[in-house]
Amino acid sequence: MSAQREKDQKPSAGFLNSVLAVARKDLAAELRSPELLLAMLVFALLAIFIFNFALDLEPALRSRVTSGVLWTTFAFSGTLGLNRSMAVEKENGCLDGLLLAPVDRAAIYFGKAISNLLFLLLLEVVVIPVYSLLYGINLFNPGLLLVVLLGSVGYIAVGTLLSGMAVQARTRDVLLPILQFPIILPMLIASIKASDGFLTGVGLEDAVPWIILLIIYDVIFLAIALMVFDYVVEE
Amino acid sequence: MISVRKLVKRFGLKMILRGLDFEVQPGEFVALLGPNGAGKTTFLRILASLSRPSMGSVTIAGFSLPKEAAAVRVRLGVVSHQPLLYGNLTAEENLNFYGRMYAVQGLEERITQVLEMVGLSVRRRDLVRTFSRGMQQRLAIGRAVLHDPQVMLFDEPYTGLDQDASNMLDGVLSTVASQGRTVVMTSHDLARTEALATRFDILSRGVIAASASRSQMGKGDLMDFYKASLV
Questions:
Q1: A-chain residues within 8 Å CB-CB of B87?
Q2: Do B73 and A102 touch (CB under 8 A)?
Q3: A7 — contact with chain B (CB < 8 Å)?
Q4: Are the C-beta atoms of residues A105 and A229 closer than 8 Å to each other?
Q5: Domain-embedded: residue B203
Q6: Domain range spanning residue A196?
Q7: Is A196 a domain residue?
Q8: Phi/psi at B15 (nearest 5 deg)?
């Protein structure tokens, strides 16, 4: 039997190739019909417009609320994208198609996470300049952009894992934010505090502990996802 | 090729499969028949490594599930009543994606072959969401045979197809079976099943209640055999 098994060996796609195939597939589908990106963008732009009029702040106070408004906008619009990204896999039973592939299921997680991260970063690339214009605050600060990147990685690491869990449920649209927001709270607090440090000019030394916390958060949740995604998506 | 021993599957307190035994030889085309709720889809999902058995052993092509699931998956082609295809990608892009996931060698050439086999060459650059249900199901078969699997699992492939589409699917299924593959198919369409399968197993109350080969049955006997097995 073992000789037969060796003779029957078939090539496997390899971890990196599978990750890239999943990410490329998501990007190709989204570029063709940008439902996910459009929904996220419209929601985010509406949110910062509404915050602008609702808060009606003095120019001096605007920089103090900026990090909170920005991260609230990213978090809520990101959830829309994460929900849609996994819902696409549920349509036509595509999730089964992915799970039937002879690849490490962590590769499926990382492929989805990469495409989700690219969509969120694209949203941020549009929202940050619009916010800068609307609120009259320069957000093109390298430190702030680093915080946005680290926060987005943590957000997507958790969100992709939980959306894989929520997609099996009938109430997935409601379930994802309920599961996700308590878990991303430390990441949101760290991102807001670190962003504040750069925006109010308090200095790098105040932002560094929060940046370290963000890096630790990202590493921990990527490692957890790597270990448990296989069980999360299984029936 | 497929060996299942004392298979049990529970969902909570509900027992769906109750110590099921099942054996399939290489090249056999087994039709798995049974009423709704008999556990056919659950059984096929376990064979496809999409669901874990609660108890019992499952071996496909010498590899056991769920321990050696990746080795089993590379040898399996699965077609269900859903096409497992992305509507926003073209037929070619769908096959290209799955081909990469299965590390298919000479992928471009293989995609052309498969599209010819399922009669969709002229629609290769069209979005799958513009396809009729029958065309999607044919492409789903193309996706399932792309990596040249030894074992094919079909779960209600005729669901939602009109007469013409079902006739066309018959032709594709005959081609797939004639290539020496081992096939297990669930269906409620006894007439079509009778024309294709070499063996008929009746799944009832979580076990194989009866089994008969084509040579044991005359033309048109399947309905009587099916009814008698369910009593």
A1: 91-92
A2: yes
A3: no
A4: yes
A5: yes
A6: 16-233
A7: yes
A8: -95, 120
